[in-house]
Amino acid sequence: MTTIDAPIRQYQGTTLPAPGVWEIDSGHTEVAFIGRHFMLTKVRGRFTGITGAITVADDPAASTIEVGIDMASVESGNATRDEHLRSAELFDVAAYPTAAFRSAGIVWQGAGGTVDGELTIHGVTRRVSLEVEFEGYARDPWGGHRAVASARTRIDREDFGITWNMALETGGLLVSKEIQIEINLEAVLKGA
């Protein structure tokens, strides 16, 4: 890696974070999910207990990402639903308290790219691809350097062993299998 002279740099005509370790700021990061109830209504939830780091390399494709998610930190705006999500029928946080993502390959072009990696939820690991956008950089009032990014993907929750559902009298299922994941991430440059 190169010496950090500035928290951002120009890479192929685009502003990107400088090489270094960028630690995820859990207070300003969320992993959100969207499923459908009765196969119609979008139900949103989020996890706020996010930890991890992005190690940015000189070549963005050589960067790495490791993230941990506290599954008990789920919030959906409804306490009863949150308890059901934490229960053995769904996330089973007593047995599987954390989920994790570890990058395995990055294809970067301009201010965005695809991050392939291994997502582990409910004790099951599957390969997923995230569409990522670098949203920008800010210097905070305390002299810290912050990078902001967003990402999205879709998964089938049953691929991760989360199969609870109920059949509807009119056909279909109570909860969709396909779940949309949206990530909004803020990271702070360590040692700057």
Succession of helices and strands = EEEEEEEEHEEEEE
The DSSP helix count reads 1
| Low-confidence region ranges | none
- Strand-pairing-aware structural class: mainly beta
Number of domains: 1
CATH topology name, in short, is: Lipocalin
Q: Shape, please?
A: elongated
Helix content: under 10%
Average residue-wise pLDDT: 92
Taking the alpha carbons of the first and last residues, their distance comes to 15 Å
Keyword list:
mainly beta, elongated, 192 residues, two-stranded antiparallel sheet
Describe this structure in words.
The protein has 192 residues and is mostly beta strands. The chain has a single domain, classed as Beta Barrel (Lipocalin), CATH 2.40.128.110. It is 4% helix and 55% strand. The strands form two sheets. An eight-stranded antiparallel barrel has the order 3-6-7-9-10-11-12-13. A hairpin with a 2-residue loop joins strand 10 (112-121) and strand 11 (124-139).
